[in-house]
Amino acid sequence: MAPILLFTYKRLKTLQFTISKLLLNAEVIDTDLFVFSDGPNSDDEIEIVNKVREYLKTINGFKSITLSFSPTHNGLANSVISGVTKVFAFSEDVIVLEDDLEVTSDFLFFMNQCLAKYRNSPKVFSISGYSLPFQHNNNIPFDVYFLKRGWSWGWASWRDRWVGIDWEVKDYLSFIKDDVSQRRFSLGGSDLKQMLAKQMNGKIDSWAIRWFYHQFKISGLTIYPLYSKVNNRGFDSFATNTLGSYRRYKSKLDLSSSSKQLHFPDVVATNPYYMKQFLNKMSLRARFVSKIESIFKNSIFHKWLR
Fold first, then answer.
1. Taking a C-beta distance cutoff of 8 angstroms, is the pair 176, 304 a contact?
2. Considering the entire predicted model, what is its pTM?
3. pLDDT tens across 114-128, in order?
C-alpha cells in the first residue's frame, strides 16, 4: 500500500472529519500515515495549532503513524514540496491529502489500484481522487478518464514523476514570449496562465500551479474517477488557497463503497467527451460566475458576523 501524507495546519474540526472518513477505508491497517503539521503564523494561532497537535497524538488504526511538527510556519506550498520530497526518498509512490477533505470508504482502494496499474506508464503523471461534477456518458464502459491537468484535492503519484520538477520555473521568461505554448497550457484550463503569472510575480504561493506547469511541459495526463472519491470541505473562513464558489466544484460522492476491479481504458489518452466538459467548467465565463457567487457569499457572511 502506498503511504498517506496528510498536511494540516489549524483546522481541527475538518481534520477530525478527514481522519474519521479515512479510517473507514479497509486498507488503513496496512497503510503508513505521515502527518505534517505546519507551525503557527502568529501568536494568536499557537493555541489552535497546539490543539491540532494534541489531537494528532490520539490517532490510531493505521499500520504506523509518523508525526512531523514544524516549529515555524512554512505555508502550504513549502510544506507539501518538502514533505512529499522527504517521503519519496524511501517510497516509490505516495497518496496526498489535506486536512479539509472528505474521502469515500473506497478512496484508498481506488488510489492504490491506479498506482499499481500505471506505475510503468510515464505518460500518466498523477491520479486524482476528486472529479468535477459532470454529466456522464453511459456509453463509456470505463471507471476512469484522463485529462491534461492534475487536481490537488486528494492525489497520488510516483517518485520518478516528482523528482524532475523545476520548482523555480526557470524557463518562465521564455514561456511568456511563446504564444503557442501559452495557448497549449490553457488547454488545461483558462485559469492556469494567470495562476502561473501570479506565482511568478509573488502574488500567490502555490506548489500546485508549478506542478501543473511541469505536467504540461512533459505532456503528462491525470487519471480521474468517473464519480468523485473526494469532497472538499474547505470553502470556509479558514480558507487560504480554496477560492471561488463551492457550487461550481461540489461533486456527488461515490458512496457505492465498491472494491471491485476497476475497468481501465485500453489507451492512455484524453477522452474528448470529458475534456469538453472540463474546459466548460474551467472557462472564463464559469470562473466569472464563480467569482461573483463567492463575493456575494462572503458579503453575506461578513454582514452576519456583524
1. no
2. 0.89
3. 999 999 999 999 999
